[in-house]
Amino acid sequence: MKKILIATTKPFAPEAIKKIKKILSKANSEYNLELLENYTDRQNLLKAVADANALIVRSDKVDADVFEAAPKLQVVVRGGAGYDNVDLDSATKKGVVVMNTPGQNSNAVAELAIGLALFGLREKFSGKSGGEMRGRTLGLHGFGYVARNVFRIARAFGMKVIVYTRYSKGAAAAIGLKVTNSLEQLYEKSDIVSIHVPARGEHIKSVSYDVLKYLKDGAVVVNTARKEVINEPDLVRIMEEKPGIKYMSDITPDCEDVFQEKFEGRYFFTPKKAGAQTIEANINAGVAAVQQIVAFFENGDTTYQVNKK
Ligand code: 3PG
């Protein structure tokens, strides 16, 4: 009997848990599912992983302490796309396979990105005269699953869409999407920039003054990715220099107090990261996570492993 622990400070919808239980009841092997939801004390997580063979998390921090406390752990699945919350080196050292569930919550995040763009353009529905999406240029910084969904929705709004991507040029060109030659060019040409790069490697703090200085005064920057991809002091600097720029984010920056003090009416931060917080996304990511765990235990399937050597 394998123990699968679902540890989520921000739980999956009950419908997703129901489906997960159904999948496990139909699996060939026997599984014991344990739920640790809404936990506030990390000690609870460290206790619960002690006899877990598999762990499903969302943005929950899975660091060296967790791996240390979990001698039986074989696989961790991050139900979602970004796995910057999992210490891959520690996992690899302990021989634990780490996976994500790419694409499963991308439509939900994309819909939020569009919503934030619209909310910003329309002056947060304050009654102040705003702008329309139609005819405006949307720049996609990155072209993964979320950005592709944003592109699909933006086209229906009648927007012009451009993209900067290093790794998905072929995919963008294949659907007739214009790829800019540089990130600077993307920021210069866009009325709205939507950020869709992971908090890894060269993307960390890649949205710096060198790029932000090209923004039009009046541009809206939408961030449904991670705060780590933005150089916050640089963002503050450009917002001081160009008083029309707005920042709409699903992630509250570390310097929230500066925004409160200086940029009244020009920013919005969701109270709790909400991009993937839909029933559909919870079902997609939760079900994929448990299916991947069953496939791992029963067939040794590591298709979505992110810590391959
Ligand atoms: C992701 O990386 O999949 C999204 O940012 C959603 O994260 P969440 O599961 O913490 O809401």
TrEMBL record:
Alphabetical list of Pfam families matching this protein: 2-Hacid_dh (PF00389), 2-Hacid_dh_C (PF02826)
Annotated ranges, domain D-isomer specific 2-hydroxyacid dehydrogenase catalytic: 10-307
Domain D-isomer specific 2-hydroxyacid dehydrogenase NAD-binding intervals: 128-250
InterPro entries for this protein: D-isomer_2_OHA_DH_cat_dom, D-isomer_DH_NAD-bd, NAD(P)-bd_dom_sf
UniProt-listed Gene3D superfamilies: NAD(P)-binding Rossmann-like Domain
Keyword match Flavoprotein: no
Keywords assigned: Oxidoreductase
Molecular function as annotated in GO: NAD binding; oxidoreductase activity, acting on the CH-OH group of donors, NAD or NADP as acceptor
Keyword Oxidoreductase (UniProt): yes
Superkingdom per UniProt: Bacteria
PANTHER family: FORMATE DEHYDROGENASE 1, HYDROXYPYRUVATE REDUCTASE
Family: Belongs to the D-isomer specific 2-hydroxyacid dehydrogenase family.
UniProt-recorded name of the protein: D-3-phosphoglycerate dehydrogenase
Organism: Tangfeifania diversioriginum
